[in-house]
Write a structure and sequence with these properties.
The protein is α+β, with helices and mostly antiparallel strands. The chain has helices at about 5-15, 25-40, 85-90, 95-100, 180-185, 190; strands spanning about 15-20, 50, 75-80, 105-115, 125-130, 145-150, 160, 175-180, 195, 200-205, 210-215, 225-230, 250.
Length: about 260
C-alpha cells in the first residue's frame, strides 16, 4: 500500500498494513538473534525479560522475575534498541518516512519489544488492552507503533486482533492497559473482533489507543513479532517513585526523501 494511503487508513481505523517489507535474509537474522537472546548466547544484561506462564493464562504471569535462564518461553523482551540488528530494523528508511509523517521530525522511542508465542505450548493469550494511560508514566500518550511479523501469524496462530476504530474513543480508563469487562461488553468487543493475520515480514501500523488483543498459537510453530512505539522526542517521563526514564532518539540523520 502507498505510504499516504496506509497512513490515512491508520488514522481512520487505528491500524493499517504496509505490506511485506522484511526479506528472508533480514527475517532469518532477526529470528536467530531473538533465539540467541532468549537462550543466553547474547548476554542478557541490559534487556528486560518476561517469561510466559506455564498455564498460558495472562493472569498467571510472574511480573518482575526478569531473566530466569535460557528458554524459548519468554513472551516479552524489551530494550531491543540496544541490539544492533533490531536497532537497524527499527530505523529503516520506510519506517522513517512513516514515523516522520505521523510523529514529526524529532523522534524517540518508548520501547522496542519482541513479543513471542513459543512453538511449544503456544504462548499466552493477551487480553484486550490499550498501550497508553497513566500506567505508562508519560506526559502524553504515544500514538504510533510499527509491528513486524518475524514469523507467519495466521488466524489461530496468535495474530493481532483489533476493535476497528476504537482509538477514536480515547482511553477506556485513565490508567490505561487492560480494558474492564463492563466496557468490553458495552462495546460488543467479542462480536466486533477483527483478526489481522500477517505473513512473515509484513508490517502493521497500530495506534496506541486501538483496542487490541491476541490469542494463543495453535500452529505448533513460534510466532514472534517485533513492535516499536515511536513518539515525539519532547515526551517526558512523569513517574515519581524512581528516576524519570530517558528515551532513545532515533532517525537523527537528515530526513529521508
Amino acid at each position: 500500500m502507498p505510504l499516504r494511503d496506509a497512513i490515512d487508513h491508520y488514522r481512520e481505523h487505528g491500524w493499517a498494513r504496509l505490506g511485506v517489507l522484511a526479506d528472508e535474509a533480514t527475517l532469518s537474522a532477526l529470528r536467530a538473534r531473538a533465539d540467541d537472546i532468549m537462550l543466553g548466547r547474547v548476554a542478557p544484561e541490559g534487556f528486560f525479560f518476561q517469561h510466559d506462564a506455564p498455564s498460558g493464562r495472562y493472569e498467571d504471569l510472574e511480573f518482575g522475575a526478569g531473566w530466569v535462564g535460557p528458554s524459548l518461553g519468554y513472551r516479552k523482551i524489551e530494550k531491543l534498541e540496544r541490539d544492533p540488528l533490531f536497532r537497524a530494523w527499527l530505523e529503516n528508511p520506510c519506517f522513517e518516512r512513516v514515523v516522520r509523517a505521523v510523529v514529526g521530525d524529532d523522534v524517540a522511542i518508548y520501547r522496542a519489544t519482541l513479543f513471542s508465542k513459543a512453538a511449544e505450548g503456544g504462548g499466552s493469550a493477551l487480553p484486550w488492552h490499550q498501550d497508553g494511560g497513566s500506567f505508562w508514566g508519560l506526559d502524553r500518550t504515544p500514538e504510533l507503533q510499527l509491528w513486524t511479523a518475524l514469523d507467519d501469524a495466521p488466524v489461530g496462530g496468535g495474530c493481532v486482533e483489533v476493535l476497528d476504530g476504537s482509538h477514536k474513543g480515547g482511553l477506556a480508563t485513565p490508567l490505561g492497559g487492560m480494558i474492564p469487562r463492563a466496557v468490553l461488553e458495552q462495546a460488543r468487543a467479542s462480536e466486533r473482533r477483527l483478526s489481522l493475520p500477517a505473513r512473515a515480514g509484513e508490517v502493521l501500523l497500530l495506534h496506541n489507543l486501538l483496542w487490541h488483543a491476541s490469542g494463543r498459537s495453535t500452529t505448533g510453530r513460534p510466532r514472534r513479532a517485533f513492535t516499536v512505539a515511536y513518539m515525539s522526542a519532547a515526551t517526558r517521563c512523569v513517574r515519581r517513585r524512581r528516576a524519570p526514564r530517558q528515551f532513545v532518539r532515533v532517525f537523527e540523520r537528515q530526513p529521508a526523501d
